[in-house]
Amino acid sequence: MNSLRLTICCVVAVLGALPHFSFAQLDPSFYDSTCSNVSSIVREVLSNVSQSDPRILASLIRLHFHDCFVQGCDASILLNDTDTIVSEQSAAPNNNSIRGLDVVNQIKTAVENACPGTVSCADILALAAQISSDLASGPVWEVPLGRRDSLTANQTLANQNLPAPTFTIDQLINSFGNQSLNITDLVALSGAHTIGRAQCRFFVDRLYNFSNTGNPDPTLNTTLLQSLQGICPNGGPGTNLTNLDLTTPDTFDSNYYSNLQLQNGLLQSDQELLSANNTDIVAIVNNFIMNQTLFFENFKASMRKMGNIGVLTGSQGEIRSQCNSVNGNSSGLTTTATKESSQDSVVSSM
Ligand code: HEM
Ligand SMILES: *[C@@H]1O[C@H](CO)[C@@H](O)[C@H](O)[C@H]1NC(C)=O
Ligand SMILES: *[C@@H]1O[C@H](CO)[C@@H](O)[C@H](O)[C@H]1NC(C)=O
Ligand SMILES: *[C@@H]1O[C@H](CO)[C@@H](O)[C@H](O)[C@H]1NC(C)=O
Ligand SMILES: *[C@@H]1O[C@H](CO)[C@@H](O)[C@H](O)[C@H]1NC(C)=O
Ligand SMILES: *[C@@H]1O[C@H](CO)[C@@H](O)[C@H](O)[C@H]1NC(C)=O
Ligand SMILES: *[C@@H]1O[C@H](CO)[C@@H](O)[C@H](O)[C@H]1NC(C)=O
Ligand SMILES: *[C@@H]1O[C@H](CO)[C@@H](O)[C@H](O)[C@H]1NC(C)=O
Ligand SMILES: *[C@@H]1O[C@H](CO)[C@@H](O)[C@H](O)[C@H]1NC(C)=O
Ligand SMILES: *[C@@H]1O[C@H](CO)[C@@H](O)[C@H](O)[C@H]1NC(C)=O
Ligand SMILES: *[C@@H]1O[C@H](CO)[C@@H](O)[C@H](O)[C@H]1NC(C)=O
Ligand SMILES: *[C@@H]1O[C@H](CO)[C@@H](O)[C@H](O)[C@H]1NC(C)=O
Ligand SMILES: *[C@@H]1O[C@H](CO)[C@@H](O)[C@H](O)[C@H]1NC(C)=O
């Protein structure tokens, strides 16, 4: 396994040297002389936390995605409410949904202890996503680094740019297209739903009254439908959790795609990849089903592409000393990292 990983890493390193794969001014060796062990610090925290909370790996991959689609990968999602900042954390796709903010603070504290004022929160999110994939037995890639942190957040933009689980294939293509991500990226990145959980409220319309038809979604497997109706009572609070990947919920593999063939995609946006009969997209899904290596190679490339969206570099933005607030902010908020957020303690994995 290790030698396979090593081989994959080397392939990526070689490809990374080609102009076609170069990304803005980011560079995997960015911290080599200033914080050479930043990756191992992130890994140590994550391997520790994931022992008691395996879902955290999924949550951190999602956090990077929700950062990148809003003003670029600039850690804007981490900024709390202040007099001048309306936090993205309470935008509809994030509110009572994103997890891992406390773990990011734990990582930041450990990194600051080793290399003060050096590593951005945006880079921590990108590294945490890659290491989470690795720890979930998913693909491993070199993470281009050198992002800087934003001075602003934009809740309106979070509501606009983050795709909804009720999106049709055309809306999904449009949403990703707006971020310069194509249909290969859409299919590959949707594969992140090979791990993690979703709350009933994000798919309950499929169970009882799909598109106000009065009937369930016809593209939802009837066996899964019955099981989900048990977990998600009609008119309930919608906060119960279920696995995004019905077959291998905590392993990063290509089963997410083969589930779709049995109409076992959980979200409408998942099942759309196959059931909308978009010829080009169906072909990509089928290729990923037949060849997991192909899925992994594409996931790596698409994660690097997503990780390059709208990055701040050079002297833009800043290196925050605490991820939840901009530097020198005099609003009286504490700058100490927190150990737990109430949000994470109430949610349990299945
Ligand atoms: C294609 C459009 C997408 C839609 C509509 C979508 C929607 C969602 C929704 C509704 C949830 C459940 C959240 C909750 O119940 O609180 C979720 C979970 C998740 N999403 Fe997506 N997502 C999309 C793409 C992505 C991408 C591109 C990634 C990362 C590359 C990703 C990674 C995840 C992960 C890992 C989880 C599980 C999080 C956890 O268990 O904490 N998703 N997504
Ligand atoms: C690992 O987690 C435990 C609690 O789950 C904590 O006591 C310990 O300090 C952690 N170690 C590191 C290196 O983060
Ligand atoms: C976020 O959720 C809380 C409930 O936890 C709710 O009170 C609040 O209004 C929500 N925020 C937004 C902007 O919808
Ligand atoms: C990381 O490297 C720094 C020096 O660059 C060192 O002070 C620190 O102890 C190292 N931390 C870990 C966890 O290896
Ligand atoms: C948020 O983004 C929107 C759309 O780009 C823009 O019109 C608005 O001015 C931004 N708001 C803030 C607070 O930056
Ligand atoms: C894509 O961007 C266009 C132009 O800004 C906007 O009108 C449209 O709503 C966006 N689509 C999605 C799904 O975000
Ligand atoms: C999507 O973009 C990548 C490069 O980022 C390219 O290799 C791939 O062929 C594109 N896919 C499609 C369907 O255009
Ligand atoms: C489905 O939703 C529509 C619109 O809200 C409503 O009029 C209809 O009564 C609902 N049907 C059922 C069976 O709940
Ligand atoms: C889901 O939540 C409801 C309350 O809305 C609860 O009665 C039920 O037992 C839960 N089901 C599962 C499978 O957790
Ligand atoms: C529904 O899913 C089950 C396995 O979960 C599978 O055996 C069955 O063939 C699926 N039905 C359809 C119509 O794909
Ligand atoms: C997709 O194709 C299947 C099988 O040919 C068909 O049953 C279904 O109605 C089609 N769906 C759409 C949205 O065209
Ligand atoms: C699977 O995909 C990988 C990566 O693109 C490729 O090298 C390999 O030849 C493919 N395997 C088969 C059996 O097509
Ligand atoms: C940001 O908000 C979280 C709760 O949402 C809290 O735990 C944390 O202490 C806040 N951080 C700062 C710097 O105020």
Automatic annotation (TrEMBL):
Reported cofactor(s): heme b; Ca(2+)
Protein name as catalogued: Peroxidase
Reactions accelerated catalytically: 2 a phenolic donor + H2O2 = 2 a phenolic radical donor + 2 H2O
Binding site for heme b: 193
Keyword Secreted: yes
Coiled coil: none
Amino acids binding Ca(2+) 2: 194, 245, 248, 253
Annotated site location: Transition state stabilizer: 62
Subcellular location: Secreted
GO molecular function: heme binding; lactoperoxidase activity; metal ion binding; peroxidase activity
Source organism (scientific name): Glycine max (Soybean)
SUPFAM superfamilies, alphabetized: Heme-dependent peroxidases
Pfam families reported for this sequence: peroxidase
Signal peptide positions (record): 1-24
InterPro entries named in the record: Haem_peroxidase, Haem_peroxidase_sf, Peroxidase_pln, Peroxidases_heam-ligand_BS, Secretory_peroxidase
Uppermost EC category: oxidoreductase
Residues annotated as catalytic: 66
Keywords, ordered alphabetically: Calcium, Disulfide bond, Glycoprotein, Heme, Hydrogen peroxide, Iron, Metal-binding, Oxidoreductase, Peroxidase, Secreted, Signal
Spans annotated as Disordered: 326-350
Gene3D superfamilies, sorted: 1.10.520.10, Peroxidase, domain 2
Domain Plant heme peroxidase family profile: 25-327
Binding site for Ca(2+) 1: 67, 70, 72, 74, 76, 88
A cellular-component GO term for this protein: extracellular region
